[in-house]
Design a protein that fits this description.
By secondary structure, the protein is α/β, with parallel strands linked by helices. The chain has helices at residues 7-21, 33-36, 39-44, 56-68, 79-84, 87-95, 124-129, 142-154, 200-212, 231-238, 256-263, 287-293, 298-308, and strands at 4-5, 25-29, 49-51, 72-78, 102-106, 135-137, 159-163, 168-169, 184-187, 192-196, 218-222, 225-227, 243-251, 271-276. 38% of the residues lie in helices and 20% in strands. The strands form three sheets. It has a seven-stranded mixed β-sheet, with helices on both faces. It has a five-stranded mixed β-sheet with strand order 9-11-10-13-14, with helices on both faces. β6 (135-137), α8 (142-154) and β7 (159-163) form a beta-alpha-beta unit.
């Protein structure tokens, strides 16, 4: 049986574990602690949890102040509000000041399927990636959520962690990176390479199985750290294949696909970007319904692979 885990719940439980070992860790939330799961830290350490109300801008500014007083603040909200409403404070008080603040954006992409476009962050990676000093992490499963927290604590500076609302399958890495800063080889292949992250890594592995039956060999690479991107590793993993595919639950503008293209600019390969095509989301009955509607599927990866191999239309 496939083992699934809710990344939000895993995050909340793990935050309590690390906070028990480090009294500097505090949590701030914007009236969403029951969803972001920072409520678990509030239950265990109520004096170290700050409910800021629906005031993300103020929350981020307070977190910056706490960081300069020696605390390690983990700041929580839905991805769209944390990166959108509080962008100025993230830029001025956190990134520009290189403050030791950990920004945790929950319910990214289409995972908040019921609330529609206003709650679906499809541009948050691009917004955070453009800011100097800021590390951007997109875990592929609940285990990597824990690894992202550990890495964030090792980094003396701002970090953005993107966490899905939907359950995610635990995935096995064929060749793990030395840390989340390095891409992980999920499965080897000779014809094409697919760079993916988040829920799309599992989708890429599913596409690989289909294409193997057609004689197309796909290398799947998980890229949990979009910034700083391990450019040398990206170039090495793409050097001996005929083409590149990127797939992400994010706009094709400014996210993983853009980062990979930048890394390969001096050694270009035929490349297809799979993501949301410059549009907003919408409400639906399920996460899967939206992924299919916007073309974030194993079938879409297979179509691009056939095209790059000269076997079909784009």
């Amino acid at each position: 049986m496939t083992k699934l885990a809710c990344p939000r719940e895993t995050y909340g439980k793990y935050l309590v574990q690390v906070a028990a070992k480090d009294e500097r860790i505090v949590a701030l939330d914007a009236d969403l602690s029951g969803s972001t799961m920072s409520c678990l830290l509030r239950q265990e350490f109520p004096q170290r949890h700050f409910e800021m109300g629906i005031a993300e801008q103020n929350m981020v500014a307070v977190a910056a102040g706490l960081s300069f007083s020696g605390k390690i603040p983990f700041v929580h909200s839905f991805s769209i509000f944390l990166t959108g409403r509080a962008f100025e404070q993230v830029r001025q008080s956190v990134a520009l000041a290189n403050a030791n603040v950990k920004l945790v954006g929950s319910s990214y992409g289409f995972s908040d399927f019921g609330d529609g476009a206003t709650h679906q962050a499809l541009e948050d990676v691009a917004v955070m990636r453009v800011l100097p000093n800021l590390t951007v992490l997109v875990p592929m499963d609940a285990k990597e959520v824990e690894e992202a927290v550990d890495l964030a604590l090792k980094i003396d500076g701002p970090v953005y962690i993107r966490i899905s609302r939907s359950p995610m399958e635990f995935l096995r890495k064929e060749q793990p990176g030395s840390s989340l800063l390095e891409p992980s080889l999920m499965a080897e292949g000779q014809d094409l390479v697919v760079f993916a992250n988040g829920l799309m890594t599992k989708t890429a592995l599913e596409a690989r199985e289909i294409l193997a039956q057609e004689g197309i060999s796909i290398r799947v690479v998980n890229v949990s750290c979009v910034k700083p991107l391990a450019e040398e590793s990206i170039r090495r993993l793409a050097a001996d294949v005929q083409g590149v595919i990127t797939v992400e639950e994010h706009s094709v503008i400014g996210g993983l696909g853009s980062a990979v293209l930048e890394a390969l600019a001096l050694t270009p390969k035929p490349t297809c970007l799979i993501g949301v095509q410059d549009t907003f989301g919408q409400s639906a009955q399920s996460h899967e319904e939206l992924l299919e509607h916007y073309g974030l599927t194993k079938e879409a990866i297979c179509e691009r692979a056939r095209f790059l191999m000269g076997r079909g239309q784009k």
